[in-house]
Amino acid sequence: MMILHVLIFALFVVSSSADKCADCLANGKHWCVTVGQCGFSPCLTTITKALNCPSLPDKAHAYNDTFARTKIIVTNAASYTMTPQKCFDSQMSTMKVSKIINVNCDRYGPEAKCFSFTAVDTVQKVLLITFRGTIGNTQLTEEILDFFHGKKQFFDSGNVFEYFYDAFLFQWNGGMQQDLRKLKYQYPDYELWVTGHSMGGAIASIAASYVVKIGLFNADNIKLITLGQPRTGDYEYAKWHDATFKYSFRVVHHRDIAAHIPPMEGQDELFHHRTEVWYNNNMTIGQPYELCAEADGLYCSNQQVDLSQEDHYYYYGIHFVDWGLAGCPNI
């Protein structure tokens, strides 16, 4: 009971601080985090963007370590094998792959495959979309070079990184749309889980947003969880995303380099949406995590200077890419 009271008090404090911060910024001043006052100067740490005013999900849409550790990690590991059903047969037997998509997703350079799949679980009453991350140096190089091609308009809600948007559309038009519409027709009340790792996390963000924009799913019925997601869109996209999704988490392992690229540039350039879940440790069972109250500020993983490629492939205590390639055996 005492713990519950502490959590409720903490959420109240964050909510109260967010209101004061938002009012402060609306008046053209900065919010000083260091002392919790508007316009205080000199200030060690300031907030100048409204999306960085402290805010956390409500209790009904809280992050659950067990859910991510036992289900989300399995779906992402499964995306790194051409036979994802093997992982589900081993770890989530009621989840059945519906459609596998494996298409070229590079508009400009040499062929680079993007892999994703849809699945359905009639026991958990869930539909699933999972996107694989970057594979190979060719795709990584093209992804980085395509950053200079700029951003693409995302409906009326800002812009997203062109490479990620194109990659999603290639997969959407490569069989995903038809299959997801069929599943939605068959199971109209099922919850939709959308997930992905690395580049796949960015595509997952766009996919979840896209199916809401076209009216196929209600945002309140979507759970979006990504692992090591790079910045995906600009400030306006992040603002729309945060106002639309109640359940959206970006899980970041310790010094994972991918969460910090492409770089944030200029006043309204690429900007992370909420909510970052930062494990500043090896992510084994029982390790603590921090829910970052800012969207993309100088807290949580953005404090890291020494970034790591190795941390990008170790999530929840395992090298989940190798684990997936092995068929997700019991550990």
Distance between the termini: 35 Å
Spatial sequence of strands, sheet with the most strands? 4-5-6-9-10-12-14-15
C-alpha Rg (nearest Å): 20 Å
The assigned structural class equals: alpha/beta
Q: What is the typical, i.e. mean, pLDDT?
A: 89
Largest sheet: 8 strands, mixed
Tell me the number of structural domains.
2
| Total DSSP E strands | 17
Please bin the fraction of helical residues: 25-40%
CATH class of the largest domain: Alpha Beta
The CATH architecture of the largest domain comes to: 3-Layer(aba) Sandwich
Shape: globular
Contiguous runs where pLDDT drops below 50 for at least 5 residues: 1-13
- Give the ordered list of helices and strands: HEEEHHEEEHEEHEHEEHEEEEEEH
CATH fold node name of the largest domain = Rossmann fold
Strand fraction: 15-25%
What attributes does this structure have?
single chain, 331 residues, alpha/beta, Rossmann fold, 2 domains, 8-stranded mixed β-sheet, 3-stranded antiparallel β-sheet, 8 helices, disordered N terminus, signal, Fungal lipase-type domain-containing protein
